[in-house]
Specification:
Helix content: 40-55%
Strand content: 5-15%
Structural class: alpha/beta
Distance between the termini: 41 Å
């Protein structure tokens, strides 16, 4: 058997109010000045200020770079590097969901490796560790704060570049559910379904092993139990906190087991149409898993049991069908659109979308490798 490697940040802070505890960890590392990477919304909403207040109280100098787009671009990364160098920052604090987290990883990697971010597309393409990153998560979904993955949009090619790089791993992750209170229902739903996609793909991939299975199944149960509550009531702190744990567990799962064609296809929708990543994942998840179930139906049995099926006397195929229907119901309950055409996707682009899906870094992790025609057919099922 091949060696299993389990990546996770060395320090992970979780629970209500934990963001208030970051200063001693920063000081212990001897870090001097932070480049705070975030976006305009988080600055205007006051969420980022909750983190900045902690820095100010501890007299930790910082400069803010808040131009990150929802799908961060090469320009975002390179502009951030310029600010970092000009201001002589020696570490980064990322505040946000996947977008600021991914941008910060790109900035940290370029700061120590140089060159253009396009050079690092693919698997473990760098030689040097990123600058230290304190990754403060504000959404329950992407797990970007704990993973070795990051995604940057190449504006010229209209392609989402997937980087899988152990050198991009954050030094400290921070998951404080109080930073997530009051988030809009549609954002909560999209990020929550992104988290579900992570764990389902991690469970069916050939890269799965008992450690990743254990954390993924724990996350599955939490998401089915608490995501509808978090969507229904943005102030439900218990639901927010349980989703924090789900996201952390999910991040550990897919970070080490891998992903598959749901992400490979969703990345293309984001690259071409600039659509929300979690929504794309949620719509594609049951479609891709229906095909995966034809190849690895046994991988769905533990998922079915986890979400409530008495599997006694049931075939693997029946268990898989139960899981797929449950995912469809959850998507509908939290308000995910049912058709890609509703969010601007046209059949004219399917050839390009399929072609790029097959080149995506997540594609090899799928239980089977579809042909281009099969990828097009999967897209067509929800056009």
């Amino acid at each position: 058997m091949s060696t299993k490697v389990f990546y996770v940040p060395s320090v992970n802070l979780m629970g209500r109010g934990c963001v208030k505890d970051i200063a001693p960890y920063i000081q212990e590392l001897g870090l001097k000045k932070a480049l705070v990477v975030t976006d305009k919304f988080l600055m205007k909403s006051g969420i980022a200020k909750k983190v900045l207040d902690v820095l100010e109280a501890a007299h930790i100098p910082y400069i803010v770079y808040d131009d990150v787009k929802p799908n961060p671009t090469c320009a975002n990364v390179h502009d951030g590097v310029q600010v970092l160098k000009r201001e002589e920052c020696d570490f980064l604090i990322s505040i946000g969901g996947g977008s600021p987290q991914d941008a910060a990883k790109g900035i940290g990697i370029l700061a120590t490796n140089g060159g253009h971010i396009k050079q690092y597309e693919g698997l473990h393409m760098t030689k040097h560790r990123s600058l230290p990153i304190i990754a403060v998560n504000t959404t329950a979904g992407t797990s970007a704060e704990v993973t070795i993955n990051y995604v940057i949009t190449d504006e010229e090619r209209k392609v989402k570049m997937v980087m899988v790089d152990k050198n991009s791993l954050a030094t400290i992750s921070v998951n404080d559910p109080e930073l997530m209170l009051g988030k809009p229902a549609d954002l909560t739903a999209a990020t929550g379904m992104d988290a579900l996609t992570h764990v389902i793909e991690a469970l069916v991939t050939p890269g799965a092993y008992p450690v990743t299975d254990a954390v993924a199944l724990a996350a599955v149960k939490l998401i089915f139990d608490y995501l509808p509550r978090a969507v229904k009531d943005g102030q439900d702190i218990e639901a927010r906190e349980q989703m924090v744990y789900a996201v952390f567990l999910g991040g550990m799962a897919f970070n080490n087991a891998g992903l598959g064609y749901v992400h490979a296809m969703a990345h293309q929708l984001g690259g071409v149409y600039d659509l929300p990543h979690g929504v794309c994942n949620a719509m594609l998840l049951p479609i891709v898993e229906e095909e995966n179930a034809k190849h690895v139906p046994h991988r769905f049995r533990p998922i079915a049991k986890t979400i409530g099926l008495d599997d006694h006397g049931k075939t693997d195929e029946e268990c898989a069908a139960y899981v797929i229907e449950a995912m469809k119901r959850l998507s509908k309950e939290v308000g995910i659109p049912s058709k890609l055409s509703e969010i601007g996707v046209t059949e004219a682009d399917l050839d390009l979308l399929a072609e790029n899906s097959m080149k995506d870094a997540c594609a090899p992790g799928n239980p089977f490798i579809p042909t281009k025609e099969e990828v097009i057919e999967m897209f067509k099922k929800i056009i």
